[in-house]
Amino acid sequence: MSEPRTLAPPERRVALVSGVERLGAYDLITALDPSGPADPRPGQFYMLAAVDAWGGGDDERPYLPRAFSYARARAEPDGLALGFLLESIGPGTARLSALEPDEELAVVGPLGIGFRPPDPGTRPLLVGGGIGVAPLLCWKEERGDAAALLGFRSAAHAQAAALFAGEPRVVTDDGSVGKQALVTELLAEELDADPRATVYACGPPPMLEAVRALCTDCEVRAQLAMESGMACGFGACFGCVVPTRDGYARLCVDGPVLDAELLETAL
Ligand SMILES: Cc1cc2nc3c(=O)[nH]c(=O)nc-3n(C[C@H](O)[C@H](O)[C@H](O)COP(=O)(O)OP(=O)(O)OC[C@H]3O[C@@H](n4cnc5c(N)ncnc54)[C@H](O)[C@@H]3O)c2cc1C
Ligand code: FES
Predict the structure, then answer these.
(1) How far apart are alpha carbons 80 and 61 in whole angstroms?
(2) In the chain, pLDDT over 90 holds for what percent of residues?
(3) Per-residue pLDDT for 224 more than 60?
């Protein structure tokens, strides 16, 4: 919470879907944002909604937009090509996963505070669980020196690891790719070998809590990209608050990346 809050205006723009790629259990949707900020920071997010067929009933409303970390951003002549990695778990993600090229996507963002640079003298260590690998992808693209430790449920989910350059270490719950292990076991091995690291983690709450506890024990700084239900995405509704040692934080403007030491627990 030491960083200035994002100044992105909460305006809604229309981006045109330019690519849809199925990656095992996930979908990678690319959309061209013609007039938004050209420099989102890894760990920031966008509120997304399909322009057509977003919601139920005759007028297809009132579904709220949903929050998504951007996974990739590439400057193109006509705007910024934003990539979002989605797991279809409900009506919003199902609709977004069904988008086709040239359909319209409503975007608000970039929002929130992303990852900060590693502490001096430490190496960046990325720890991702499941769909939580999404914000780590653009961070890895920016920080080529970062090692990536990735954990997935199964081989279908582990296909997302192919998006990462270098050689990410991959484990799965069922042992279908890499060792049958939790990604925090890889983190423990890495910190055991060399604790001079800044850890960047995103994944389900139990994984984040395990990362937080391990890093606390090893006296290693960690930045956790967290999630909570977000209705507005820019500080207005207080729907996304989480308790911290400094009081409640609104994850959409004070996060979603929080320093682990601010938290009693990431659960
Ligand atoms: C900052 C941020 C970044 C995100 N980035 C991504 C991303 O890159 N890719 C991606 O696929 N998803 C991402 N999410 C999660 C995504 O926004 C939610 O899962 C979204 O609610 C899905 O919408 P839906 O309509 O498909 O499902 P919903 O109907 O909204 O949810 C389906 C089920 O999941 C539960 N649920 C929804 N959101 C959460 C949550 N945040 N924590 C715990 N349980 C929840 C609901 O209670 C419900 O049971 C992100 C969330 C946040 C806050
Ligand atoms: S989502 Fe509305 S205040 Fe954070």
Answers:
(1) 28
(2) 92
(3) yes
The Cα 112–Cα 100 span in angstroms is 28
CB 138 within 8 A of CB 64: no
Q: For ligand 2, what atom is nearest to the CA of residue 233? A: 1
Q: Which of 68, 137, 163 to mutate to test the pocket of ligand 1 (most atoms within 8 A of CB)?
A: 68
Write the DSSP assignment of 174-227 as a string of letters: SSSSSEES-HHHHHHHHHHH---EEEEEES-HHHHHHHHHHHHHHT-EEEEE--
Number of residues that make up the chain: 267
pLDDT of 1 reads: 47
CA dist 116 and 142 (Å) reads 12
The protein residue with its alpha carbon nearest to ligand 1, atom 36, reads 229
Residues 33, 30, 69, 186, CA torsion sign: negative
Pull the structure tokens for residue 54.
């977003």
| Confidence category of residue 174, pLDDT binned at 50, 70, 90 | very high
> Do 42 and 148 form a contact (C-beta atoms < 8 A)?
no
